[in-house]
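Section 3.1: Structural characterization of target chains.
Under the original work plan, the team committed to producing a structural model for every single-chain target entering the pipeline before any wet-lab resources were allocated. The record below documents one such target. The sequence was received from the expression subgroup and is listed exactly as submitted; it comprises 291 residues.
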Amino acid sequence: MLINAAQLDKLRKNPKNVTILEASWHFPTEGRDAKAEFLQNHIAGSRFLDLSAFHDSESPLPNMLTRDEALISERLGELGITNEHKIIFYDRSEHHTSCRALWMLKVFGHHPGQLYLLDGSYASWERYGGKIESGEAQKVTPKNYSVNYEARFIRSLVQMKANLHHPTEQVIDMRHPVRFAGGLEPRAGVRKGHIPGSFSFPYFSLFEPNGHFKSLSKIQNQLEGIGVQLGYPVITTCGSGMSAAVLNFILDLLNHDQHSLYDGAWTEWGAESLFHGEEGLSERPVKTCLE
């Protein structure tokens, strides 16, 4: 659910079973420290959600979501969260990573009706004049959190390969259109281009200049304008799995219930090296707009 700053303020003042989480995350090349920025100032009563704490430490890919349910339960419980909590997410990231956090909780089995996103994020709270505080969040007693892992919201490399040969799901690439077309890749060891048959729909095209989401009707028109059929399943993808979740959130608001996220993303599909069991890069073909 998308809420505005006034609605968040009302929820914040009735804190029973309500948790506010800052889910900011930045690429290492950006030179920003999300936790340090939180300590400097944050929405009063909020806690910091470290997205990297839920990454699979054994994966060679940068942001793969862990499937370790015991670890997930422990990390969420440490934040004082139970399965009954309403959780409100915000961020101050250029990549709108609160959407990744919300998608992540959906995967963990939290009821979607209990997950909220602040429209315009932290900047909108500042414009509203909402209460700000600094320093560490107040300590809470750890709670028990029961994980019900929903793998149906994730697509693997094997599933992406199968979909390439027998397409049943539309693939929407949220990266910058220059990268989609075959322009310079920011990561070493990654090929240029995109998954054949995928649509280019950069994540920043979902937002107004003030950082708020565009209206659902505008976004729906944009998607249909590039050929996406909203009556059919969708897989979102991006560079490393972080910004693709922006579209998954919007698809939920559009009552589109057949969508997932390719977590390995372009870092995996576009890799120059072979993965275990692969015989050649032709198993992961790439296409550029120059071809």
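The mean pLDDT is 96.
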